[in-house]
Every structure is written in structure tokens, then in C-alpha cells.
């Protein structure tokens, strides 16, 4: 039996440094104190602003000095929306995974909700929130936050649900046999098992959040013009005014925020989550983060953790264990629980039924002509989305394979691509559109460029992942037998990246449909640029407050996305996961 | 074989004169024969093997590498496959089965059991099975009097498939686990033995029937059990210590007590110093040790193990098995009974006090018997092989009627004495020299006197000692009373004395004499002894032993040897009378 290397044992079996913070350590703790202070101050600012009187149309100050405050508001919206998503994810995923009855409709529902274009929710959500808090800024803000929430939550919930479902059977049995209470099961098994998936989906979701934030900080709803102070509205106003300096400032701040989020939040979290990887062999290449090391070596945080987190954790564990031990396992559902379930189900059914009935009433007002317009719009957008995917695949496949198979290229290309990808396309829309118009192109072509900006990254990153996963042995076989370039692509590379490419295309397709709402219809410099398409119809209906068309178009779009997913992507996916799966 | 003979052999193969090739092969030792066959191209090997007589095929098969054995075996029609496997020497057969990958194992046991057994088995319900096969041995009295820890009464498991079809995985069966025993549940994979384990441990509910824990239904009590899983089922994000502490945390044991108990368990399994390591930093064997520690920390009354060693390599598994037996034997663990599920026959016979063999589709008890061998067990000992053989038969022939090998409580030492390679004439000469020297002489002087090297002299002295004619103590060779009588007797008398000494003192001669006397034709194939000795000595030594035995036996007129039929024959009564 070979002894494991002690070096790794030490590096992983790490715990908070013990003892009170020493003098030298205090110096390194200054940034942590500063961060605490900043957090406190920002809570104050936020509270004052939110409870302030309603000012639906804030005058956007284009001076660079104003940017930090705008950036702060935008970040705050994303942050709160993300926390909401996380909470929702845990509850929804948990119920869907453990309640058989609920699972049967919660999972398909998730699939449908995922396909409904977020921006279609905008009018309804906004109006509801504003009427909830008619006099406070809180209403509009909550509306924006809820919209971002609907943009980020589904994939997270789905990831958590699948993780829970995939926990290995014997591990579950171990937990059951040793009578883990639900808290211990959650903290020692379920959360750790699903955390990596959750983190990667969080990163994706937050990037998606920026995309929608840019769109919903400034919008027209019927006769009302909403404008929230934030980076998105800053950029839109700057583009509208043609103020290049302001645009550049705005983009710079945007980039800075993205890089900082990556360095201060995601990197440390990914490095920390390394230990949750469900693998049998230790990976040679472990992600590292200086920030995480810094936090780990901070005396103050260590001290605080030992004094607060650890005792609380222990107390919680003990409390739940005692409770669990005292409660005898009850066989079957209690009558009370059963009634509660029935009641909840009944109320939900009545609610859904009412909504459907109201929708039908609304839709019955739809004329034959409007219906025809809708169908044609759907067709046009469908073609546009397909062209976008095709162009996207055409350049990302060679590029992704090049990056994925050449580690040296990957070292600088991958971070660059990551940053480029996380700049929300919506932030760039006004700028790009301005350029296109100057070049004499209309939105017909422009919208494809815009869609591409938003969705090509999904394909690129998946292709890179696929190319990286090609086993070295197979590559060696190719060079050993002197495969020509074409043979190499046909026999190895394309089949190997196929499953990844499909994943990328599925995500990109969904994203493109969603983005079409913004890309096909745009306010700029007080003018409206638009082109034919289902997205444009939805946007226009929002502008006009035409709820009948809005509802019909939304349903149509969701139906198209779901149908394509079922008929095309799912089949390709099955093919990919059976025939083209690389298992070594 | 000489180069010319090799040439001849190759020629026979090339001309596809298989019967003659087989004849050549049968004249060699199996190992040599296989060496020759292995040098042939694969297709010729297979063609040759297909035409070999069954007994020769059986003798050779075990000497091929295991993956090749499987292929060669499949060149024969199923009925012959079965006969070949049956006729293989037991230890070679055991090795063959144990080295097969699980899938191949499963397939071959099915193939072997298929053509005469299963058809009949499907018709006969469990109750109609011959009593011996269904339940070879009832639980001994001592057990029947103690209260069982776990008692399953008519438990069965039926899974309902999505299309509404019901699949019976476990047929209704009764089973009890008594304290102080290691029970092995043996069966092919997928036969429902893991399901049975889960029902007994309370993880799964039986579709009908009840499981009693200390006489009370499982639903009412929380049984003190632990499971060691095949896949270890450790939490990769927890350190070794946290993994072992986890079951205690679930019970609300406070931090200090938790730490103490976990450290003790980690110590017991020999993982001290690895508390802060994560499972992924450990080797497979060490991970399973963590699994053991986690199971032991709750001090289970019954320790369940679900194929605990099958995910490990052979050496590691062997190591862990013996450590488990040591912990159990020295009472270092507080477990009252161990219930181990395995598909490995050898593992079952090695570990268990009691073996339960399960049949498939659905699982039912095919045989339930005790293994009356003391620990530690020797895989090469004949009783061990008999058990392995018995289980193998039960598993491959569902409706067969087999008697459990009769093994006495304390099996007598079956070891054969190693015959020194000395000729009887040499022994007589040595004794003569000794008597001249006054009945006692220093080893070195003796060598000088005989003008021999000590190394050459030693076997002769050992032979004399073995026969009780002399003693060797601290370099001094001394004549015994028997030795004196021998030297004083005439030639015929010497033969009689020699014969008596050999039969009373040497086990091999004892056996030969018994068999020759009891068999009607007073003859026995030498092959039998070749087989028997094969389990004790390497091939070369077996031949030398037999050669020596032949010299001795023919000298003293105990038997004659017919080289044509390779048989030992009792000499004509007249000859015997003349000799005495």
C-alpha cells in the first residue's frame, strides 16, 4: 500500500491558523477591515435610496464621477437577485428531487419557464411591483430585481435538482444507515455534492443577469418611461447622446467590475470548491486563488470563524441530531400533512386554471391578421437564430479546438475570451448599433451581429472544453498513424467535441431567442430601430402596452423553443451521449 | 523434447494430425505441453484444443493464462466445456474461476449451469429441490439454542417495473444470523444478494415477510448495524476523521467524545497519521480502511459487508481479508456477527463460518452449510479445495444433489513426508557401515569413510531416519534397534522389515497399501498420486517423489509398476509369499 504524498495532505487538510492574530497579521487584515466598513456603508446608502420617494425617470449624469454610484446600484441589483435565485434554487430543487408527486410537474415546469423569454415578464412584473409600492423607489427596484431573478434562476435550480438526483446510491445508503438528520444530510452530502454545479451555473447566471440588467434599467412601458440609476442606463443614455468619452468610461467601469468579480468572488470560490470535486484521483492541475489564500491566512477572519462559525455549526448539528433522535420515524404521511399537500395543490390548480382562462379571454381578442404577423415573425426570427448559430459554430469550432488542444495558446486566449464573454452584449448593443448605422447597415443584419455577440460564447466555451477533454492517447494514435488533417478532424476531433458542441448550441439557441427581443427592436437617440421578427413584436407590444399581442407572442416563442428543444436538441443530445461519448 | 521432436510436433500440427499431436502432448508434463502449444499461432492453438480428448484438455487448461483459458474453453461445445471444467484439478479450476473478470465469470457459470440444470430448475419450485441441495446442513445445535441476532421470516422482494410488470428479485426465504459467526452470502452478481443484505440491515423494506432484530420487528427498533460498501461510499469532501466522525455526529455525540472514538477506530484499521487526508489522496485499500473505520466507530452488533474487497486489487484484498480475520479473531472489534456478501467462492471459504449459496431469478437459498475448518485456512489444503469444489458444483448445477464434503472436526495433518532421494541399496549400505563403526558415527567421518560428499550422503541418512533405522542428532548418526534388526536379517527379511517400516511410518506408502488392498483389481493408477502430490510440491519434485517411491516400493515387494498402463499393481500372492 503506497503512502499518499504528505505534501498534498498538508495543503488540503488545511484549517484556520490558530491563536490570536499576531502583529504582522494585523497589517494584512487591514483590507478585510476596510471591506467590512465598505459593506456597512453601502447598506446604509441602499436603505436610504430604496426607501426614498419614487422617481421613475432619474436624470442620468454622464460625468465619470457619477459612475461609481451607478455601478454600485447595478451590482447591488444583481447581488440581491442572485441571492434570491440561490434561495429559490435550494427550495425548488429540494422539493422537486424528494417529492415524487411534485417532481412530476415541477421538472417540466422548469423546462418551460426556462424557455419563456425573460423580457416578456417585464411589463407585468414592473406594473405589479410599482402598484405594490406606489410611492417608494423600492417598487421599481424590486421589479428590476425580480426580472433579473427570472433570468438567472432556472438553470441553477435545474443544476441543483440534477445533482441531488445523481448522488450515488451507496452514498445515500450510508447516510440513511447512519441515520443522518436532514441538516447533516444537507451539509455533509447534498450541498457538497451539488456545489460545483451550482457554482458554475451561478457564474453563468450572473453573467446572464448583467445582460438583462442592461436592458431593464431603462425601458418604456406604454406611456410610462422608466429609468433607474445604473450602468445600463448610463451606457444607453451615453450612446443616445453620442458621447464617445462617456461610452468608453462606462465600458471601462463595466470591464473593471467584471474582472473584479472574477478575481474577488469566482476565483476564490472555485479554488475553495476544489475539495468538493467528486473524483477518485486527485487532479494534477488544481485551481488556485491568491485571494482565497489571503482570506485563509487572515488572522482576524480565522479568529472570528473559530469564535462564531464553528461553535454555531457544532450547536446546530447537535440540536438537529437531538431532535432527530427524539422523533421516531413515522410511517406514511400524517393526515395533516396530506391535507396540507392537497390544499396547496388545489389552490395552485385553481390559480393556474384562472390564469389560463384569463389568458384565453385575452387571446380571443387576437385577429386573424395579427396571428399571421405573429407566425411570420416567428419564422423570420427562427431563420435569424439559425444563421446566428451557424456563423457562431463556424468560427468557434476551429478557434475552440485550437485553444483547447494547444495549452500554450489557451493560457492567454482563455482568460481573454472569458472577459470578452462576460461583458454583457446588451451593454455593447447601443455602441455597436451606432457603428452599424454609421456604416449604413440596417437592423436586419445588425440584429444578427447583436445575437451573435450574446450567444457565440456558449458555443466557444463548450468547444474548448470538448477539445481539452480529448484523451492524449487518441491524439497520439492520430499522429502515429499519420492521419491527414481532414482525417484527423473527421475521425477524432469532430466526434470528440460533438456532445460539447450540442450542449453549446442548445444554450446558445435558447439565449438567441431571448436576446432577439432586444436585438430586433431598439430605442436609440429617441428613435426606434426595428426589423421584422417575433422579438420585435414582443418589444413593440411592451412599448405599446398591448398585452394581447405580448401574451400571444410570448406563448408562441416559448412554444417554439420548447418544441425545438424536444424535437431537435434532445435527440442530438441522446445521440451525443450514447454514440459519441468518450469514456476511458 | 529434443529439437527433432519439436520439429516432429510442429509437423504434426501443420498437417493437422490432431490425434497424434494429442498423443505427443499427453506424454509430456502439462506445463511442458502448454509451453509447446502456446508457441503455436492462436488459430492453430484453438483448433488443436478443440480436438483434444476431454481429460487431456482438462489437464492442460489450467496451465494457460486465464484469458486464454476462457477462449480455449469456448472452442468446445457446451457439454464438453462442462466436462472439461469438471475434470480440471480442483486448485487449477479454482484459480481459473477466481481470475476471471466478473462479467466472464457470470457468463461462464451461466453457460455451465444452463444445459441440464436450469431447464429442470424452472419447473421445480424451491420446496421440491432435493433436501441436500436446498439445505445441506441444518444449523448446529449450539446455534439453534442461542437467540439469533437477525431473523428473516419469509422475506421476499418484488420490484414493480414502470410498465406494471412485477419482477421477483428475492423469493420468500427464511434466514437467521447468529452471534459469533461470519456468514458469507454467495451468489452470482445480480442475483439479489445485495437486495437481501439491504433488507436484513433495514435499509430496504421487504415486499412481504418480516425481519426480526433480537426478536422484534425491524420497523420498531433501530438496529445496531453498519455496512462496508463495495464503492466505499465515503464523502470525498470530508477528511478521513470527519468521515469517521459523521455517524457519531448523527447520533449527537459531543465533539470531544466523537474525536476520541473516531481516532480509536482509525487506529484500529491502521490509518493513524492519515486523519487529515481526504479520501481521494488515499489508495483504494486505504479508502476501504476508512470505510471499515466508519463502520466500526458505531460499534455495530452486526457488520454487513457488500462485496467489500471486489473493488480492490488482489494483493490489497488479501491483506485486508487477513486483517479483518485478525481483528475478528482477537476480538478487537465489538461486532457480534459479520455478514459478508460476495461472488468470490474462495473468499467465502476463506472467511466464513457459514456459507449461504443463493440461486438466481429469483434469489433463493440453494445451500446453507458450515465450514468446519480452523482459522487461518490454507487455500491449498485438500479440505479447503473440497469446499470450493462443492460450492462450485452447487452454483453451476442448480438441481444437483451433492453431499457436503465430510470433514472431521479437527482435520488430521494431511502432509506428506518428503521422501529423500535415496535408493534402498544405499540405505542398506549405510546401515552396514554404521554397524561396522559400532552403531554410531559422526556425519563427517561417515562421509570420509564412504568417500562421499556430505550433500550426497545426507539424503541416504534422512531416508534411514524416516524409516526409523537411524537417528541424526547434532551431527551424529546412530543406529536404532530396528536398524540393527535390519542389518542382521537376510535379504528377504530386510525387504519385509523395510516394507513394514515404510507402511507404518510414511503416509504415501500407507495410502498405496490401503488402496491396493481394498481395490478389487489390486491396482491403482499412478496418476492419482501425481495429482495428490501436485497440491504439495512443484511438478519436478512430484516426479522425483514418485520415482523414489517406485524404487522403494518395488525393492520391498510392496507393488510392481506397469509402465505401459502407468499403474501400480499388487504383486502376485505367490511372489509376496516368496518375499516374506
Strand content of chain B: 5-15%
Helix residue percentage of chain B: 40-55%
- Computed structural class of chain A: mainly alpha
What is the SS-derived class of chain B? alpha/beta
Relative strand content of chain A? under 5%
Would you tell me the overall average pLDDT of chain B? Answer: 79
What distance lies between the first and last C-alpha atoms of chain A, to the nearest angstrom? 25 Å
> What order do the helices and strands of chain A follow?
HHHHHHHHEEHHHHHHHHHHHEEHH
Task: Label the overall shape of chain A.
Answer: globular
Biggest β-sheet: strands ordered side by side in the sheet of chain A: 1-2
Kindly provide the radius of gyration of chain A, computed on alpha-carbon positions and rounded to a whole number of angstroms: 26 Å
Strand element count of chain B? 16
Fraction in helix of chain A: over 70%
Unreliable segments of chain B (pLDDT under 50, ≥5 consecutive)? 115-144, 408-414, 574-580
Sheet of most strands of chain B: 6 strands, mixed
Q: How far is it from the N-terminal to the C-terminal residue of chain B, by CA?
A: 42 Å
* Unreliable stretches covering 5 or more consecutive residues of chain A: 1-23
Q: Overview of this structure, please?
A:
- The complex is a heterodimer of chains A (584) and B (580).
- Chain A has helices at 6-12, 23-50, 67-98, 100-115, 121-132, 137-166, 169-177, 182-216, 231-241, 244-273, 290-297, 299-326, 335-363, 368-405, 407-422, 425-439, 443-468, 472-480, 485-519, 534-544, 547-578, and strands at 218-221, 224-227, 521-524, 527-530.
- Chain A is mainly alpha-helical.
- In chain A, the strands form two sheets. Chain A has a two-stranded antiparallel sheet with strand order 1-2. A two-stranded antiparallel ribbon of chain A has the order 3-4.
- In chain A, strand 1 and strand 2 form a beta hairpin.
- In chain A, helix 8 runs parallel beside helix 9, helix 9 packs antiparallel against helix 10 (244-273) and helix 14 (368-405) runs parallel beside helix 17 (443-468).
- Chain A is globular, with a radius of gyration of 26 Å.
- Residues 1-23 of chain A have low confidence and may be disordered.
- With 580 residues, chain B is of the alpha/beta class.
- In chain B, 51% of the residues lie in helices and 14% in strands.
- Chain B has 27 helices and 16 strands.
- In chain B, strands 6-7-8-3-9-10 form a six-stranded mixed beta sheet, with helices on both faces. Chain B has a four-stranded antiparallel beta sheet with strand order 2-1-4-5. Chain B has a three-stranded antiparallel beta sheet with strand order 11-13-12.
- Chain B is globular.
- At the A-B interface, helix 1, helix 7, helix 8 and helix 12 of A face strand 6, helix 13 and helix 15 of B.
Amino acid at each position: 500500500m503506497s503512502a499518499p504524498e504528505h505534501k498534498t495532505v498538508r495543503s488540503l487538510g488545511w484549517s484556520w491558523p490558530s491563536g490570536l492574530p499576531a502583529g504582522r497579521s494585523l497589517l494584512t487584515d487591514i483590507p478585510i477591515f476596510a471591506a467590512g466598513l465598505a459593506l456597512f456603508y453601502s447598506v446604509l446608502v441602499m436603505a436610504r435610496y430604496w426607501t426614498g420617494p419614487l422617481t421613475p425617470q432619474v436624470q442620468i449624469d454622464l460625468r465619470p464621477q457619477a459612475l461609481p454610484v451607478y455601478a454600485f446600484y447595478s451590482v447591488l441589483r444583481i447581488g440581491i437577485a442572485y441571492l434570491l435565485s440561490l434561495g429559490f434554487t435550494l427550495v425548488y430543487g429540494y422539493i422537486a428531487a424528494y417529492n415524487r408527486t411534485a417532481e412530476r410537474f415541477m421538472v417540466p415546469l422548469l423546462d418551460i419557464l426556462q424557455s419563456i423569454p425573460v423580457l416578456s415578464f417585464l411589463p407585468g412584473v414592473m406594473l405589479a411591483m410599482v402598484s405594490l409600492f406606489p410611492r417608494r423607489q423600492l417598487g421599481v427596484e424590486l421589479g428590476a430585481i425580480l426580472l433579473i431573478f427570472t433570468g438567472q434562476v432556472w438553470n441553477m435550480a435545474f443544476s441543483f435538482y440534477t445533482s441531488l438526483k445523481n448522488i450515488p446510491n451507496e452514498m445515500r445508503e450510508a447516510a440513511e444507515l447512519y441515520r443522518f438528520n436532514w441538516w447533516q444530510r444537507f451539509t455533509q452530502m447534498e450541498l457538497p455534492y451539488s456545489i460545483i454545479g451550482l457554482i458554475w451555473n451561478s457564474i453563468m447566471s450572473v453573467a446572464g443577469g448583467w445582460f438583462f440588467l442592461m436592458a431593464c434599467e431603462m425601458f418604456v412601458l406604454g406611456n410610462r418611461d422608466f429609468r433607474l440609476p445604473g450602468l445600463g442606463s448610463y451606457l444607453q443614455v451615453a450612446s443616445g447622446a453620442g458621447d464617445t468619452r462617456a461610452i468608453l468610461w462606462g465600458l471601462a467601469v463595466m470591464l473593471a467590475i467584471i474582472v473584479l468579480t472574477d478575481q474577488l468572488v469566482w476565483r476564490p470560490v472555485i479554488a475553495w470548491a476544489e475539495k468538493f470535486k467528486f473524483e477518485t484521483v486527485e487532479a494534477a492541475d488544481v485551481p488556485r486563488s491568491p485571494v482565497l489564500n489571503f482570506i485563509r491566512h487572515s488572522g482576524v477572519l480565522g479568529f472570528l470563524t473559530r469564535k462564531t462559525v464553528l461553535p454555531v455549526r457544532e450547536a446546530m448539528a447537535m440540536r438537529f441530531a437531538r431532535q432527530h433522535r427524539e422523533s421516531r420515524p413515522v410511517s406514511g404521511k400524517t393526515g395533516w400533512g396530506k391535507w396540507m399537500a392537497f390544499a396547496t395543490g388545489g389552490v395552485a390548480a385553481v390559480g393556474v386554471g384562472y390564469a389560463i382562462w384569463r389568458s384565453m379571454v385575452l387571446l380571443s381578442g387576437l385577429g386573424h391578421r395579427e396571428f399571421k404577423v405573429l407566425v411570420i415573425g416567428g419564422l423570420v426570427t427562427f431563420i435569424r437564430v439559425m444563421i446566428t448559430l451557424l456563423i457562431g459554430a463556424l468560427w468557434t469550432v476551429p478557434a475552440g479546438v485550437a485553444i483547447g488542444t494547444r495549452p500554450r495558446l489557451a493560457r492567454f486566449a482563455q482568460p481573454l475570451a472569458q472577459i470578452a464573454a462576460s461583458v454583457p452584449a446588451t451593454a455593447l448593443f447601443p455602441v455597436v448599433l451606432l457603428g452599424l448605422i454609421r456604416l449604413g447597415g440596417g437592423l436586419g443584419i445588425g440584429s444578427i451581429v447583436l445575437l451573435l455577440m450574446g450567444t457565440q460564447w456558449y458555443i466557444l466555451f463548450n468547444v474548448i472544453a470538448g477539445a481539452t477533454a480529448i484523451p492524449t492517447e487518441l491524439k497520439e494514435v492520430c499522429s502515429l498513424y499519420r492521419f491527414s488533417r481532414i482525417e484527423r478532424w473527421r475521425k477524432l476531433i469532430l466526434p470528440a467535441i460533438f456532445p460539447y458542441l450540442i450542449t453549446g448550441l442548445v444554450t446558445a439557441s435558447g439565449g438567441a431567442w431571448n436576446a432577439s427581443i432586444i436585438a430586433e427592436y431598439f430605442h436609440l437617440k429617441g428613435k426606434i430601430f426595428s426589423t421584422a421578427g417575433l422579438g420585435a413584436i414582443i418589444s413593440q407590444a411592451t412599448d405599446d402596452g398591448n398585452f394581447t399581442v405580448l401574451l400571444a407572442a410570448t406563448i408562441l416563442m416559448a412554444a417554439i423553443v420548447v418544441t425545438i428543444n424536444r424535437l431537435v436538441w434532445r435527440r442530438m443530445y441522446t445521440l451525443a451521449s450514447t454514440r459519441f461519448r468518450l469514456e476511458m | 523434447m529434443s529439437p527433432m521432436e519439436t520439429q516432429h510436433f510442429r509437423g504434426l500440427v501443420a498437417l493437422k494430425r490432431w490425434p497424434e499431436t494429442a498423443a505427443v502432448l499427453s506424454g509430456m508434463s502439462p506445463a511442458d505441453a502448454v509451453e509447446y502449444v502456446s508457441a503455436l499461432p492462436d488459430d492453430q492453438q484453438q483448433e488443436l484444443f478443440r480436438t483434444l480428448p476431454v481429460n487431456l484438455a482438462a489437464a492442460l487448461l489450467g496451465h494457460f493464462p486465464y484469458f486464454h483459458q476462457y477462449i480455449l474453453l469456448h472452442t468446445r461445445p457446451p457439454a464438453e466445456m462442462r466436462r472439461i471444467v469438471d475434470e480440471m484439478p480442483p486448485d487449477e479450476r479454482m484459480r481459473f474461476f477466481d481470475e476471471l473478470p466478473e462479467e466472464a465469470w457470470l457468463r461462464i457459470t451461466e453457460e455451465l449451469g444452463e444445459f441440464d440444470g436450469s431447464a429442470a430448475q424452472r419447473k421445480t419450485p424451491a420446496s421440491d429441490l432435493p433436501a441436500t441441495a436446498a439445505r445441506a446442513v441444518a444449523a448446529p445445535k449450539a446455534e439453534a439454542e442461542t437467540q439469533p441476532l437477525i431473523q428473516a421470516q419469509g422475506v421476499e422482494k418484488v420490484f414493480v417495473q414502470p410498465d406494471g410488470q412485477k419482477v421477483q428479485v428475492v423469493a420468500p426465504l427464511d434466514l437467521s444470523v447468529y452471534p459469533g459467526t461470519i456468514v458469507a452470502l454467495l451468489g452470482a452478481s445480480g442475483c439479489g444478494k445485495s437486495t437481501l443484505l439491504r433488507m436484513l440491515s433495514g435499509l430496504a423494506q421487504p415486499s412481504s415477510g418480516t425481519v426480526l432484530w433480537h426478536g422484534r420487528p425491524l420497523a420498531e427498533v433501530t438496529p445496531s448495524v453498519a455496512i462496508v460498501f463495495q464503492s466505499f461510499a465515503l464523502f470525498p469532501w470530508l477528511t478521513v476523521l470527519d468521515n469517521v466522525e459523521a455517524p457519531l455526529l448523527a447520533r449527537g455525540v459531543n465533539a470531544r467524545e466523537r474525536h476520541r472514538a473516531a481516532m480509536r477506530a482509525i487506529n484500529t484499521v491502521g490509518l493513524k497519521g492519515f486523519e487529515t487526508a481526504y479520501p481521494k489522496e488515499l489508495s483504494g485499500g486505504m479508502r476501504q480502511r476508512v470505510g471499515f473505520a466508519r463502520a466500526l466507530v458505531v460499534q455495530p452488533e452486526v457488520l454487513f459487508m457488500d462485496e467489500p474487497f471486489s473493488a480492490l486489487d488482489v494483493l490489497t484484498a488479501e491483506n485486508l481479508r487477513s486483517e479483518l480475520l485478525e481483528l475478528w479473531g482477537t476480538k478487537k472489534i465489538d461486532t457480534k456477527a459479520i455478514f459478508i456478501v460476495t461472488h468470490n467462492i474462495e473468499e467465502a471459504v476463506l472467511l466464513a463460518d457459514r456459507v449461504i449459496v443463493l440461486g438466481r431469478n429469483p434469489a433463493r437459498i440453494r445451500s446453507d452449510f458450515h465450514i468446519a475448518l480452523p482459522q487461518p485456512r490454507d487455500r491449498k489444503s485438500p479440505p479447503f479445495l473440497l469446499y470450493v469444489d462443492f460450492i462450485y458444483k452447487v452454483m453451476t448445477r442448480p438441481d444437483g444433489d451433492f453431499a457436503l464434503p465430510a470433514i472431521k472436526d479437527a482435520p488430521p495433518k494431511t502432509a506428506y513426508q518428503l521422501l529423500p532421494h535415496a535408493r534402498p541399496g544405499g540405505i542398506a549400505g549405510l546401515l552396514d557401515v554404521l554397524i561396522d563403526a559400532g552403531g554410531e558415527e559422526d556425519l563427517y567421518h561417515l562421509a570420509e569413510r564412504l568417500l562421499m560428499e556430505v550433500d550426497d550422503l545426507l539424503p541416504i541418512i534422512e531416508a534411514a531416519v524416516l524409516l526409523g533405522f537411524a537417528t541424526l542428532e547434532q551431527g551424529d548418526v546412530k543406529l536404532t534397534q530396528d536398524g540393527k534388526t535390519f542389518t542382521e536379517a537376510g535379504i528377504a527379511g530386510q525387504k519385509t522389515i523395510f516394507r513394514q517400516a515404510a507402511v507404518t511410518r510414511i503416509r504415501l506408502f500407507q495410502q498405496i497399501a490401503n488402496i491396493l488392498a481394498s481395490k478389487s483389481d489390486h491396482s491403482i493408477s499412478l496418476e492419482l498420486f501425481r495429482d495428490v502430490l501436485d497440491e504439495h510440491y512443484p511438478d519436478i519434485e512430484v516426479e522425483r517423489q514418485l520415482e523414489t517411491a517406485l524404487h522403494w516400493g518395488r525393492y520391498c515387494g510392496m507393488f510392481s509398476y506397469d509402465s505401459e498402463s502407468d499403474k501400480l499393481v499388487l504383486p502376485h500372492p505367490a511372489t509376496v509369499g516368496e518375499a516374506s
